[in-house]
């Protein structure tokens, strides 16, 4: 095992007027630190394309994760795909990214645009070997991975973006490389990077995509932990124990909640300095305690974080808000979604008498639901999450 | 003189943001920046009575509707 962490994210847009996407991304983990990711682009668009690409990616991902040989996987695809009645072919192009034990990347490319690898934020030229499987020419590559490597796979909807509209001949691969190498320097999450690529394609298509377009990003990161303290313990006598466990953890520390931050301040022997500057009227201001990386208000802020997390897992339409804004919720989002790979949640179960007022939109149950919901969202993002109740 | 406003969850929902805005405006209008210091606090432990405000340690319960009267009575007249 090494200190590397594989962060994965993808986003698709559909051909204008289609409800289904003809591209499909499938991911499967196997072993302790290995995973395979398949991006398939079915012939045409709509339901046929969707079935072809879903079958292709699912079959390949499952077979590779079970340790089958590449040739067998490709042969299976060629033999089993249903044949299109109009065109008389069974066809789905695909890109396979197989990460073995967090340090080796095997790339298999069949007719999709070339996979882009950015190393030290520069396009990295890698060797491609042509092999033949069942009469099909397939490109094969094996490289060793390094921290900071960014691997971008896409469907042909990306380089074709804006043909005849924004660009005469579409968005050239070199230009996509340059675009992504700028974005990659900023520490964005893989999902955000994929969204940026696809949003740019959508723009080039004037928001009427002439083809399904999918971007798939893998980022090799160093593991980093972030710890979040949320709410005072149910039994006041547990405060000391909760604080010492929380502050003993490696990594950054976030404290969320008014009472919670005063308990922490007392434990550290430092004052809470609350700022009145408020970049967003919706989210209460943040505070400072020496020795804590971020101090925010509790329920309202966390509620907003969960709203962003849900969006992140689906459309990822709000990343322009939380990646740039300065309020407490956006700051928590950046630390949890972008910086952290391992997250420890310390949740206190004390009841705040003020929150029991029926005129207020917060109740004890809501608070506990928030903690659980946050854990669920972060786990769905692929983070290693541990939750501790006090 | 120090005026501290609670901006914790409960007081935030009850309108502490509007109180901060109004007080900042009133202080500016009356040219009291030198004499009155505005600060924030996370939870004063009396959430039920919020929005919680203290003037040199003395506790007041203020709402966005009463903030103008509060400013006149407890800030302006006491300077």
Q: Please, could you describe this protein's structure?
A:
The complex is a heterodimer of chains A (390) and B (79). Chain A has 390 residues and is of the alpha+beta class. The longest helix of chain A is centred in the first third of the chain and has 19 residues. In chain A, the strands form 4 sheets. In chain A, strands 2-3-4-5-9-8 form a 6-stranded antiparallel beta sheet. A 5-stranded antiparallel beta sheet of chain A has the order 1-11-10-6-7. In chain A, helix 1 runs antiparallel to helix 2, helix 7 packs across helix 9 and helix 7 packs parallel to helix 10. Chain A is elongated. In chain A, helix 10 links the parallel strand 17 and strand 18. Chain A has 2 domains: 219 residues, PPM-type phosphatase domain (Phosphatase 2c, domain 1), CATH 3.60.40.10; 165 residues, no CATH class. With 79 residues, chain B is α+β, with helices and mostly antiparallel strands. Chain B has a single domain, classed as Glutaredoxin (3-Layer(aba) Sandwich). Helices cover 37% and strands 23% of the residues of chain B. Chain B has a 4-stranded mixed beta sheet with strand order 2-1-3-4, with helices on one face. In chain B, a hairpin with a 2-residue loop joins strand 3 and strand 4. The longest helix of chain B is centred in the first third of the chain and has 14 residues. Chain B starts with a strand and ends with a helix. At the A-B interface, helix 6 of A face helix 1, helix 2 and strand 2 of B.
